[in-house]
Specification:
5% helix, elongated, single chain, 488 residues
Length: 488
């Protein structure tokens, strides 16, 4: 009832949305609607409207409203089946001026089509229905495509809305890009670009939605981003949703389930419902995760081991449906592979003694890389380092293990061989898009069989000053082993 009252009041005020600027246009009509009338906003035509909301109020079901380039301030209410077309998504701008109520609100209707706009500056406080760039409420078969959502608190929110399609949009610096609320079922979210945002796609009590071909990433820009960057979250009651062919790159948390007693995002979540799939069961293909640690021994482009899904705190007992077919490379992104690494360290060593080895490479695209080590004795591991993370937003700070290194940044790993013999260390680099370098090799010799490891004074390699913390978790090095950084 509250929403209806607000709607009547707002419509009664006519919601003036007036252009601040518009390019001079010829009076020729650039767009015609075959199934209904076409109304024009902006431009120089003698019957063109100067206000988008006035044109919407004058339109009938099936009509199209074409909006010329310009910046239009205010917000819109749509309660009829119309098509709203911007001349160019980069230069046809609807600025909500942070109005409490969202920039575009679609109420109790169906068949609305919006394309070709930049939609920005929704309210900075309130619920999703009040702070969205586009809020779809009790509306079905809506198509939002080819739009840019910029600096909105929530990009697009759906509430009790079904069979809608959100595709080919770009979300930039938006708190939550796509939020599907109660009873928002059977929607398709595809081919969207989601960049530098806090939460990419968030489903709460929505079912049978399909999420595919979306590109979710963060760059090194930190504005509007805190430590808890989430690619996809399936929250309380989300069930039978299918998520596949998405790229999750450089997010703090690629995929996330809100679990019981988890208040990370400011609300207490419950476990998601049944039947969610992180892959397409027919294609047998899942998503690309830059933090996937598996390999592809058969070269079919699918990881040989599943990618597990945990809750935020990575509690094993909260593990839910894994991605059985994780992709080895990001879809639709071409990248140059890292250069062949350089590996250095001792070549003649004692059995049972830890030795430091360094690996470094550069990436032609300056992408971050990770290092994969094959120690030649049947053991392998990914290079890693410890880093201090500031909690932010009242969360505690903590030490985190990271696997990615900047181009040209040295990775230091330690390892101990237990048996005499000749071994070959192999190292390769993988960038954040899944492209791999050639193997680098270093032969070593262990001349003596390990008998008993004695305690020795710890020495520090020159490449790692003693004043700096180790690049490895402390638990890997015990007091019963010697770390050696020079050839004997």
């Amino acid at each position: 009832m509250k929403k209806i009252i607000i709607s009547v009041i707002i419509v009664g005020l006519l919601l003036n949305v007036t252009p601040i600027s518009a390019s001079i246009k010829k009076s020729s009509l650039p767009f015609r609607n075959k199934s209904g009338n076409t109304l024009y906003v902006g431009g120089t035509g003698p019957e063109n409207y100067s206000n988008i909301q006035v044109a919407i109020d004058a339109a009938s079901n099936g009509d199209t409203i074409f909006v010329y380039n310009g910046t239009y301030y205010g917000h819109l209410i749509i309660t009829k089946t119309i098509t709203l077309v911007g001349e160019d998504k980069d230069t046809t701008i609807i600025d909500g001026e942070q109005y409490y109520g969202g920039v575009i609100r679609i109420f109790y209707t169906s068949g609305v089509n919006i394309t070709g706009f930049t939609i920005k500056n929704s309210s900075i406080a309130g619920e999703e229905r009040s702070i969205s760039g586009i809020y779809i409420d009790h509306s079905n078969y809506v198509l939002i495509s080819g739009c840019k959502l910029f600096e909105d608190t929530c990009g697009i929110a759906l509430d009790y809305s079904e069979n809608n399609t959100i595709k080919f949009n770009k979300f930039i610096k938006v708190y939550t890009d796509l939020h599907l609320w109660h009873g928002s079922n059977n929607n398709v979210i595809s081919d969207n670009e989601i960049c530098n945002n806090l939460v990419g796609i968030d489903i709460y009590r929505g079912s049978n939605n399909v999420i595919f071909n979306n590109n979710m990433y963060r760059t090194n820009q930190t504005e509007y981003i805190d430590d808890y960057v989430i690619g996809i979250r399936l929250g309380e009651g989300a069930s039978y949703n299918t998520v596949y062919h998405n790229n999750l790159i450089n997010n703090k948390i690629g995929k996330y389930y809100a679990m019981a007693n988890n208040a990370v995002e400011g609300w207490i979540g419950q476990p998601p419902g049944d039947g969610n799939l992180w892959y397409n069961p027919v294609l047998k293909e899942g998503n690309y995760y830059d933090d996937y640690l598996g390999m592809d021994e058969d070269g079919d482009g699918i990881g040989d081991t599943p990618h597990n899904v945990y809750d935020y705190y990575n509690v094993p007992e909260n593990e839910t449906n894994p991605d059985l077919y994780p992709l080895m490379r990001a879809r639709g992104i071409q990248s140059n592979p890292p250069n062949k690494p350089t590996i250095d360290g001792p070549r003649q060593i004692k059995a049972g003694t830890l030795y430091n080895y360094t690996a470094v490479t550069t990436d032609p695209d300056e992408d971050k890389v990770r290092y994969f080590y094959d120690w030649g004795d049947g053991n392998t591991e990914w290079g890693q380092m410890l880093t201090w993370v500031n909690g932010g937003w009242g969360h505690p700070s903590y030490w985190a293990v990271l696997f990615f290194f900047s181009s040209g940044e040295i990775n230091i790993e330690d390892y101990a061989w237990q048996k005499k013999g000749d071994y070959t260390i192999k190292v390769k680099a993988r960038d954040i898009y899944g492209y791999e370098s050639d193997w680098a090799t270093l032969p070593i010799t262990v001349p003596l069989e390990h008998q008993n490891i004695q305690s020795h004074p710890q020495s520090t390699p020159q490449s790692q000053p003693s004043s700096q913390p180790s690049s490895k978790p402390i638990s890997k090095t015990t007091t019963q082993q010697t770390i050696v950084g020079s050839t004997i």
